[in-house]
Amino acid sequence: YLVAPIGQLIQSLTQLQVAMAAITRIQEVTALDSEPETHGGPGRAGDRTPVGVRFDGVVFRYGEDRPVVHDRVSFEVAAGGMTALVGPSGAGKSTVFGLIERFYEPQAGTILVGGRDIREWPLGELRAALGYVEQDAPVLAGTFRENLVFGAPEATEEEIARALARTRLDGLVERLPSGLETLVGHRGVLLSGGERQRVAIARALLRRPSLLLLDEATSQLDAVNELRLREVVAEVARETTVLVIAHRLSTVTGADRIIVMEAGGVRASGTHEELVESDDLYRELAATQFLVSS
Ligand code: ATP
């Protein structure tokens, strides 16, 4: 008689523990400070005038622990052109993106976008000026078109065609059975990692960003897709500022400037050729990726 009820009791206790953990997490989230006031809703399109970025003595920590970005980090990203952030895992590259997007506030220092302290930008305007393409960007379930205009519903056919040409997706769309109306994602045509990232870039371009933050796909891309992505990023950098987190140095050897991060600080910066000459860590990274002989 006892075995079954005791079994049920143990099961209920386990469920109760899971529920308690969920309640704690919900309390943590509801206790978070709300984002700074926004003027103008998020998701508005920018005006595509390229803007630069400057970090001036920035220090940032996620919690009470030691700073993740320390050493009073300073660097400059020129308006227009391509700047790359490289460095070992955990160096703080993604944190730099989060700070520019104002997901976090630095404990010290100033971040300027377009010469203006980001605390003075209305948040909606700042976010509208930024395009963000995440690593291994997912494709949304829906049509190819829906994937493109998500975030820019007012995009015209001409703008869509231009974004497709810019990202070298025009040929692919032509080959799809129903063109832009073809279903993609798990219920439709599957796209490769490189294609998915180019769709994400096209989606970001339709929002006319003044600064494109691109976290390069970490998934293995075949040689053709890697070359396409490299060409696309170089072309996009002709019309807006591109700051790219590069996981493969081969994609950024042509960048106007490369910033080498290590353990939360900026260690060196320069062109590929300059860094191969002057920086041991960069030369080592380049050697492990067979770009220079060790
Ligand atoms: P990767 O190339 O692996 O993406 P990264 O250079 O982008 O690395 P970050 O993701 O910026 O590095 O992380 C820098 C440090 O901050 C790491 O030690 C990481 O564990 C820590 N970190 C990142 N995000 C958080 C967070 N939300 N809360 C606490 N610590 C974090």
From TrEMBL:
It comes from the Bacteria. Keywords: ATP-binding, Cell inner membrane, Cell membrane, Membrane, Nucleotide-binding, Transmembrane, Transmembrane helix, Transport. GO terms for cellular component: plasma membrane. Residues 53-288 form the ABC transporter domain. GO terms for molecular function: ABC-type oligopeptide transporter activity; ATP binding; ATP hydrolysis activity. It is found in: Cell inner membrane. The keyword Nucleotide-binding applies. Belongs to the ABC transporter superfamily. Siderophore-Fe(3+) uptake transporter (SIUT) (TC 3.A.1.21) family. This is Putative ABC transporter ATP-binding protein. The chain holds residues 299 to 592 of 592 of the full protein.
